[in-house]
Amino acid sequence: MGGGGQLTEPGESGSRRAGGVYTWEEVQSHCNRNDQWLVIDRKVYDITHWAKGHPGGHRVISHYAGEDATEAFTAFHPNLKFVQKFLKPLLIGELAATEPSQDRNKNAAIIQDFYTLRAQAESEGLFKAQPLFFCLHLGHILLLEALAWLIIWLWGTSWTLTFLCSIMLATAQSQAGWLQHDFGHLSVFKKSSWNHMLHKFVIGHLKYGIKKIKYMPYHHQHQYFLLVGPPLLIPVYFHIQIIRTMISRRDWVDLAWSMSYYLRYLCCYVPLYGLFGSLALISFVRFLESHWFVWVTQMNHLPMDIDHEKHHDWLTMQLQATCNIEKSSFNDWFSGHLNFQIEHHLFPTMPRHNYHLVAPLVHALCEKHGIPYQVKTMWQGLVDVIR
């Protein structure tokens, strides 16, 4: 159900036929690690075996075991018709006619209104990407990389120029991080395969060769938590550990992309700084970029009430778990438009340049149903992380 992986054919879900009729009580009883059912559009699916090979990771889909996953399924899959063929072998039946469409105490009115809002966003073209936006974004990353090397090549390796080079490289790395995030969420191209291909290029070759979401054990908003105020070597330690994981899992494609980054970097900077100097430079760049990443991502999450056991509808759950940082040209650029974290969580496959267009619609819907819609200043968000 996630947008970050490539699909493989599912295995058989078991011996059950697709003609069963079930109550919510029956579905909710199948929510343990070795027995998992979920509901999508009133259809009941046995995902026990499929969860292990789920492209978005087993944690994401297993989270909805015993629950209605319709809203999450719609949010994470840009091409619903395509994924239907993966659902068909998992189908074991449907909800009884006497059962409501929503499980537990979810608000049917909120669910319906949010469905209407999403349909409106689709009709207004807010899920269509603007190629020029992403081309310009990629272009400014490449320009920063080129200028960082050029100033050292032309004017030498003084402390001042080295610091300026580090700032430019860290900026390029951070912006590449936001760009790979776009491809990882399948929000740039209509075809998932194109998103996957460009995602590997950006995260593997332009950035520092590490697919953090795939190899770190926690959700992306917590994976670098220890880097808030870290020693200089912690980012390097994480990189070494993840590369070791790639080797142990024999993920040679990702490893090749990773090595292509380091090969390019060393070829550019070893002639200027030597091997030790180049490693020191890249470690300092890691230090700067990891702080940038952590402070931006955590100011939308850490101060919020994140409790996945409350079984709320999609809108309410996302609004409780995140907040926005106010819009400005700088904030949009600095955070990769993740200052609109509410809209990103609600519509994970929407191109980020459209978040500000859908935000007023989301805000109005929240006001209608009395759901708090929190917007902070950048400074307030950073202070809340410290608290």
From TrEMBL:
<dbReference type="GO" id="GO:0016020">
    <property type="term" value="C:membrane"/>
</dbReference>
<keyword id="KW-0276">Fatty acid metabolism</keyword>
<dbReference type="InterPro" id="IPR012171">
    <property type="entry name" value="Fatty_acid_desaturase"/>
</dbReference>
<dbReference type="Pfam" id="PF00173">
    <property type="entry name" value="Cyt-b5"/>
</dbReference>
<comment type="similarity">
    <text>Belongs to the fatty acid desaturase type 1 family.</text>
</comment>
<dbReference type="Pfam" id="PF00487">
    <property type="entry name" value="FA_desaturase"/>
</dbReference>
<feature type="domain" description="Cytochrome b5 heme-binding">
    <location>
        <begin position="19"/>
        <end position="96"/>
    </location>
</feature>
<feature type="transmembrane region" description="Helical">
    <location>
        <begin position="224"/>
        <end position="242"/>
    </location>
</feature>
<dbReference type="GO" id="GO:0006636">
    <property type="term" value="P:unsaturated fatty acid biosynthetic process"/>
</dbReference>
<comment type="pathway">
    <text>Lipid metabolism; polyunsaturated fatty acid biosynthesis.</text>
</comment>
<dbReference type="GO" id="GO:0062076">
    <property type="term" value="F:acyl-CoA (8-3)-desaturase activity"/>
</dbReference>
<keyword id="KW-0472">Membrane</keyword>
<keyword id="KW-0560">Oxidoreductase</keyword>
<keyword id="KW-0443">Lipid metabolism</keyword>
<dbReference type="InterPro" id="IPR001199">
    <property type="entry name" value="Cyt_B5-like_heme/steroid-bd"/>
</dbReference>
<dbReference type="InterPro" id="IPR005804">
    <property type="entry name" value="FA_desaturase_dom"/>
</dbReference>
<keyword id="KW-0812">Transmembrane</keyword>
<keyword id="KW-0275">Fatty acid biosynthesis</keyword>
<keyword id="KW-1133">Transmembrane helix</keyword>
<dbReference type="InterPro" id="IPR036400">
    <property type="entry name" value="Cyt_B5-like_heme/steroid_sf"/>
</dbReference>
<protein>
    <recommendedName>
        <fullName>acyl-CoA (8-3)-desaturase</fullName>
        <ecNumber>1.14.19.44</ecNumber>
    </recommendedName>
</protein>
<keyword id="KW-0444">Lipid biosynthesis</keyword>
<feature type="transmembrane region" description="Helical">
    <location>
        <begin position="262"/>
        <end position="285"/>
    </location>
</feature>
